[in-house]
Structure of NAD(P)/FAD-dependent oxidoreductase:
Amino acid sequence: MPSKQKNTLEHTDTLIIGAGLSGIGAAYYLKKEHPTKSFVLLEAREVTGGTWDLFKYPGIRSDSDLHTFGYEFKPWVDNKAIANADKILDYLREAAIENDINRHIRFQHSVCSAAWSTDEACWHVEIERMDTGERFSMTCNWLFSAAGYYRYDQGYTPEFEGVDKFNGQLIHPQKWPEDLDYQGKRVLVIGSGATAVTLVPAMTDKAKHVTMLQRTPSYIMSLPSADVIANVLRKLLPSALAYRLTRRKNIAMSRAVWRFCQRFPKLARRVIRFSNKRSLPKGYPVDEHFNPPYNPWDQRLCVVPDGDLFNAISEEKASVVTDHIDTFTEKGVRLKSGQELEADIIVTATGLNLQAFGGINMIVDGKTVEMPEKVAYKGMMLSGIPNFAFAIGYTNASWTLKIGLLCEHLCRIMRYMDRHDKSICCPELPSPNMPTRPLLDFGAGYVQRALSKIPRQGKDAPWLVAMDYNVDIKLMRDGPVEDPNLKFYSSASEQKPQVHTRSKALEEA
């Protein structure tokens, strides 16, 4: 669409916030589907890669297979399907180079605020250069948030009693010191999620002993790091075909496992327990340390490649303690049971601080956007916010599966607008009284802590945030762009978007 901007600010058709997995993917689809449109990626850090460059802790890896976590347009050809961060970074950066995306990226550019003007049919975006502190503005027709879902500058650490007493090193994985020496040290990892179960076996190579302290167990499953079928197919078939077949296989398998856990939670619990028991030493207290009080997939199921956590426990290089912290001490932590765990290094793998859209301040026609009043449309746009899209992936499958679909759908929306000479696109609630519920049906602590600060979802499509790839295929790839809930306008004079404001009293948890 031709720009309607009348001032001298630099203008681009689409401004992408973030040059990580989602941002690079969005750039690829824009280049492919709209080669004549301009776009710019703004990245607050000095390099691409997002999460995979930010975190530096030992053993950092994916907890999804790279045949589905990777892009649909770029085959994953490594023999390891569950890969470490360095290989994932190489893959992402190769994708950017191969598709000439790097020249569109501006590093150390942080978005501070974004103000939509219906009269001008564009966003005014305020940007700060992190290296100089300079502030300036750009305009764009579309704003796309690929900033992820958590704060990059700060992880979550609960308030522990007596933490100042501890004489050793206290570290959060999000701020990992690259020069940390843990050779021969006693390491205590607080937490039981994906980060903790990755750290514990990875640190046993040098540490004297590693202990994982958890309040509540998590579901943990061992999976082979190599996908034998994928590796065989790649030898017999062209790379692209082998990748497509493997991707379909893995999507079907992960979807089947999730549906099985949802439909038969008690049986799923028994299957996981049986697998854990087989992987641990005879007589190990499985029910104490690996038997969560919730059902499988109420929180994300943790994957350990080749059973590395269980192997570390069996070899007595690592141990698990399930208890509550009473207080930190000079030598470690004292538990509610009275037991004291001594440590030289304590790692608080206690989670993330969830943050919507990089925490930028958004304004629509002079009114500050209150995120809890907004409702997600198809899991990619927000009610009452024109020409804005965001990338949030699945919680029960590979993140990138959803990113690819929503980027495709956004490109279809843009094509529809071009064909019909529309410059404004805005999801609008059918009624300000439409019942809603939390955006994410997920029991993880970092999600629960933030639900009151983020948008919500409806109870039916297109306001439902689907967590099923096949459902989204029908909605986003095969379904029409035209929808009574999605309004298009040629100009402000035709009709301004109606911004419904929800009352919190009407929201249904």
Remarks:
- The CA atoms of residues 334 and 340 lie 4 Å apart.
- Confidence is low (pLDDT under 50) at residues 1-7, 497-501, 503-509.
